[in-house]
Write a structure and sequence with these properties.
Number of helices of chain B: 8
Order of helices and strands of chain A: HHHEHEHEHEHEHEHHH
Radius of gyration of chain B: 26 Å
Structural class of chain B: mainly alpha
Helix content of chain A: 55-70%
Largest sheet of chain B: none
Structural class of chain A: alpha/beta
Strand content of chain B: under 5%
Number of domains of chain A: 2
CATH architecture of the largest domain in chain A: 3-Layer(aba) Sandwich
Number of helices of chain A: 11
Oligomer: heterodimer
CATH topology of the largest domain in chain A: Rossmann fold
Distance between the termini of chain B: 17 Å
Number of strands of chain A: 6
């Protein structure tokens, strides 16, 4: 019976990807259930993120000091979820800054991200009722698509403008050392989050979004109930992943490789 | 009228993105030549759009930089320098071909040399960052600093002689807590990325557009 089912699945689904597909479908269903509950009015209590609280405080600090807030969304393009999480954070920060008269500046490596960041700043000023303060190229700088051109350019930007707060949320590699160290030297509050180079971010920043907290922060900073509800769905998926891991370890210890076979390993 | 056109354009692009997303996912998970053909076709569209945006990018840079240079705004000499370089490289590449020896030599002698110079400087930035980190201020930074010192010691051969245990401690740290932490970050990051994708499809991840909708 199991052989027949697996051979049928093998004809439709690419080899070794059935488990991944099942997980994507399950994640989709769980997230949608959480979103639906949120839409129906269920309030989800989420753990406050230290780095997010620091971001709110940082906007106030920038206003008091009369210095700008800087955002670096990393070296990837708009196809990277980390970049999108960074841009969502920047959207909120930029809008709050525009409302209280703080400049939100940014620099990115990819040209498509530059375009998106320009759009964010422009719409933030428009929404704050101060469209006349927006000027193209004033708040967003581009130093080339190369990783280190971006790093050195961003470092120069930090040295020139001495921002009160620097947010590093996106995809970073070694480049973050250059801009991160420069930010620390000018005395900025540094808040960062990424997935790959977490160790670098941890070295440079005062507050960090650990791993997937950047995605949770992107949802919770908007204070949108439905977006926050999806974080609950994300936690259910994490519980499921933990369950699979525990069951897998127990079965492997008992001499059964059924879970690893199920995963197509 | 212009707002209607913008909305129509936005929804058409969104529809195209959803088709592209579904086709890419389907071609990854399912065995179907038809789905593969759709995904490949959309990839070609994507490449064409990327090429077009390159021209838009160059045009945008020039339109902004020329204005800044004329107004003598802040950093205008750098902008002028950038524009001259872009023109020189375009003419040079078009005339000699980008795979020609002379072009490649010029490229390696300029960009790659600068790249390597920055890579060399990274060590100074890292040392500076490590110094700040090793100023133990809290329990967490203390643990971090002790672990980091063990790894540093493991990479210093002169220390391995008198203290062979450092080697074992370092590899235990790398193979257990470090590996477990890295995997946890990757796993949860992957899940977070998928959920972010679902939020995008549900229209919940608005970012910049959120501000526009309130206008």
């Amino acid at each position: 019976m199991i052989t027949t089912i697996s051979s049928l699945v093998g004809q439709i689904v690419a080899q070794g990807r059935a488990f991944q597909l099942a997980m994507v479908v399950i994640i989709g269903i769980l997230t949608y259930i959480a979103y639906y509950l949120g839409k129906e009015g269920k309030e989800w209590e989420i753990r406050p993120l230290e780095a997010l609280e620091a971001t709110y405080e940082g906007i106030g600090r920038a206003a008091e000091m009369g210095r700008p807030i800087m955002m670096l969304p990393g070296i990837s393009d708009l196809g990277n979820p980390q970049t999108l999480a960074g841009l969502t954070l920047f959207g909120e920060v930029s809008q709050q800054s525009a409302e209280i008269g703080v400049e939100a500046i940014a620099s990115a490596s990819d040209s498509s991200v530059i375009t998106a960041v320009e759009a964010i700043v422009r719409s933030s000023y428009t929404a704050a009722g101060k469209p006349e303060l927006y000027s193209p190229g004033k708040f967003v700088r581009w130093f080339g698509g190369d990783q280190f051109a971006y790093a050195v350019g961003a470092a120069g930007h930090i040295l020139g403008d001495k921002p009160a707060v620097v947010l590093y949320v996106g995809y970073f590699l070694f480049d973050v050392i250059v801009s991160g160290d420069t930010g620390a030297r000018v005395g900025s509050i540094q808040i960062g989050g990424t997935l790959g180079s977490m160790n670098m971010i941890a070295m440079m920043c005062d507050y960090i979004f650990i791993g997937e907290e950047i995605f949770a922060a992107a949802a919770s900073i908007t204070r949108d109930r439905e977006a926050i509800a999806t974080i609950a769905g994300q936690d259910w998926v994490k519980l499921l992943a933990l369950l699979v891991m525990v069951v897998g370890v127990i079965l492997m210890a008992a001499g059964s490789d059924v879970v690893s076979k199920l995963m197509g390993m | 009228m212009s707002a209607t056109i913008t909305y129509v354009r936005t929804y058409l692009v969104r529809l195209l993105i959803i088709i592209g997303l579904v086709a890419t996912l389907a071609s990854y998970y399912f065995v179907s030549p038809q789905v593969d053909a759709v995904a490949n076709e959309l990839n070609i569209w994507n490449m064409n759009i990327m090429t077009f945006t390159l021209f838009v990018g160059i045009f945008t840079i020039f339109s902004r930089y020329i204005k800044s240079v004329m107004d003598r705004s802040k950093y205008w000499p750098y902008m002028l320098y950038g524009m001259v370089l872009i023109i020189v490289w375009i003419i040079f590449g078009t005339y000699t071909g980008i795979y020609s020896d002379i072009y490649q030599t010029a490229f390696l002698s300029t960009k790659i040399t600068l790249h390597i110079a920055i890579l060399g400087q990274l060590i100074f930035f890292m040392t500076s960052a490590a110094y700040r980190l090793f100023r133990i201020r809290t329990m967490r930074t203390a643990v971090f600093a002790i672990c980091a010192m063990a790894i540093v010691a493991c990479n210093a051969p002169w220390l391995l002689g008198p203290f062979p245990i450092v080697d074992k401690i370092s590899f235990w740290l790398l193979d257990n807590p470090s590996m477990a932490g890295a995997r946890a970050l990757l796993l949860t990051g992957g899940i977070g990325g998928v959920v972010l994708g679902i939020r995008l499809l549900l229209g919940l991840e608005k970012g910049a557009l959120r501000a526009t909708e309130e206008v």
